[in-house]
Write a structure and sequence with these properties.
binds zinc ion, 6-stranded mixed sheet, elongated, alpha/beta, binds beta-D-galactofuranose
Length: 326
Amino acid sequence: MKITVPILLALLLLASCAAPLAEQKEPVRLTVIGVSQVGAESDWRVANTESMRSTFTEEAGYRLLFEDARQKQDNQISAIRRFIQQQVDCIVLMPLCESGWDSVLQEAKAAGIPVILVDRSVAVEDDSLYAAHIGSDFCWEGQQAVAWLDGAFQDVEGPVNILHIQGTPGSSAQLGRSAALEQAVEDHENWTLLAQLDGDFTQAKTYEVTCQWLDGQSEKPQLHIVYCENDNSAFGAIQALEERGYTCGGEGVRVVSFDATRQGLTHCLKGKISLDVECDPLMGPLVEEVVQILEAGGTPEKHYYTQEQLFTPEDLTWKLIEQRIY
Ligand code: GZL
Ligand code: ZN
């Protein structure tokens, strides 16, 4: 029989299909993770999302269902309900605020789907409604900031006037960071909270409310401290202050901030932010560890806290900032 090209191709094709059964791989079952993220309100949040996306990849054996709630709790609750309908293996929730989660977490529990809380936490009666919480200790962060301020103003007898830019109302980060400052104001008779404004952790909102407040004062307020509950708020406050002739940093207004993003640390190196308290967003790998414990039928710890540090201009170099991941 004359072997022509078509016959040769047909023989090759046949041979490849007849590969031994062992070589024909079973399709790998991916672990389905439903993630409900707060939004994209800050540099910190963008880094947090990137950490999740780069951890839960198909190559690593996951199918990631990612939903951005655009800063609305209702959107998070409907996303969780969709994940339950889709019978995901695990739900990861970055809760916008602490209250209002009992019923939807009860639904996830009834469906036998574990919920891992990431970043902020929830205030629920029954902590069996979530398998684990991975995040920062926001009270600790606030206490570090006010301890630094205590040292910076310990020799000041006269008034210490403070403008407080708060984060998203009712979020763990806002509650913890605000509580520390409010306690410190109570402990220092010469410290005065001139105003507490809701900057919602965004640069735009903070710029808007700071301009409004400054322009609404009968005379230019004397400011010693502007306490901003994240870097993006600090950027907005600094812009509003400098436009009105304030000097931020050095012997001028002490701006305190949280997150220690690359841009925040750049402002700090330049002296505009006097203290930046780190808040680590890169929690993807830790979340994966908890997912793997759950997948193996184990019981994870209830709380995992990230380790964080403080930065002042003296601690920083361009090299250090360039080496940071977010
Ligand atoms: C803190 C996180 C806060 C960040 C903000 O862990 O919840 O939300 O400090 C972010 O940048 O918007
Ligand atoms: Zn003191």
